[in-house]
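Bench notes, afternoon.
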Amino acid sequence: MKVQRPNIRHQIAEDFEVLEEIAGFLDGHTALGRRHRFLSTLQEFRLTIQQELNYEREAHNLIALGKNLKDFKLIQVPQPVPDYYSRSVLTMEEVQGRKITALGPMTMLDLKGAPLAEELFRAYLQQVLVDGLFHADPHPGNIFITDDGRIALIDLGMVGHTGPSMQENLLKIMLAISEGNGEAAAEIAIRMSERLERFTAPEFRRRITQMVSLRRDQGLEQLNVGRSLLEVSSVAHENGLIVPSELVLIGKTMLQLDEIGRVLDPTFDPNASIRRNVAALMTQRMRKDLTQGSIYSSLLEIKEFATGLPSRLNRIMDTVTNSELEVKVTATDAKMVMYGMQKIANRITMGIVLAGMIIGASLMMRVPTPFQLFGYPRLAILFFIAAATGGFWLVISIFVSDYKGRKKYTH
């Protein structure tokens, strides 16, 4: 049974008011606060605590998780006792067993740890990547080994939720990390995150690739997926990338899960488990997506597309035939493009003027005149000197301008 302490909600609300004032001050007055956005993190944490204080919600989580994991014979989710739970009291089925941290060495020898570790990890992969509802606090105190040799998941006050698009991105990034592919992990993290103005993509890719490569060099069996996900989140924050909160929560969950898996079986390799189960996970995801409603929705979209296709093609053909087709190009920085075009035009114009001066001076060399300089017509020599000076200045300006441009865009 779980019984809530009196006035605990009021006490927690007062504590969060104080913490929000501190977080707001740090966000507004410190670079560390602007980088990590403490107020946003605190608000998410407050929502999580409020959900944990609602035992009715926890009871519904137990029921939902029990249904989702009913096919896992080595996993038990104790169900709430009907009519004996409320917002402040929760009564669950009794679990005959001990915490995983209370098992002695002799008990661990008799326990079949390898099948339990594999089943537990596979169950969590299904929760995160297929069901969208997962037990987010699998620390050793919440994992029981029952007397009949099964695993019981206790305390579902903290749960996580993942939507379909988030599940696909998580599957991709977990596969990339488990295979030691840092570049792919970095690209997926960028696509699923919010970019700030100070975000530096090359630096982020370099650090993630370096981090995953370092883990890979130590051996894939030593690559902790949960720790790697948390490091990805940390590097992202440092480089101006705000990753989804689900990624951080899943990183923490996988970190705890990796540790439990190695307690059950010291040779357990979570990365190999991900690769073994990815085919089954993809099949489950496809079956889940192919519901009656989704099929009907797709059929309606296909029907709408097929019905409207002839009229759309007719309009396109009429536009082309009547010479009314227009192509609009939106430049990322129109001022910069115009400046570059003007710069090119000015250089070409100056080159033509200098060439004209040289040709004119050459023609004037043949015209006899009493005004001479160095034995040649003075006006022709002056034109030659002016053209040489202008050509020298044009070459120098081109080299200086190109050097500054390369320096700007490479740094």
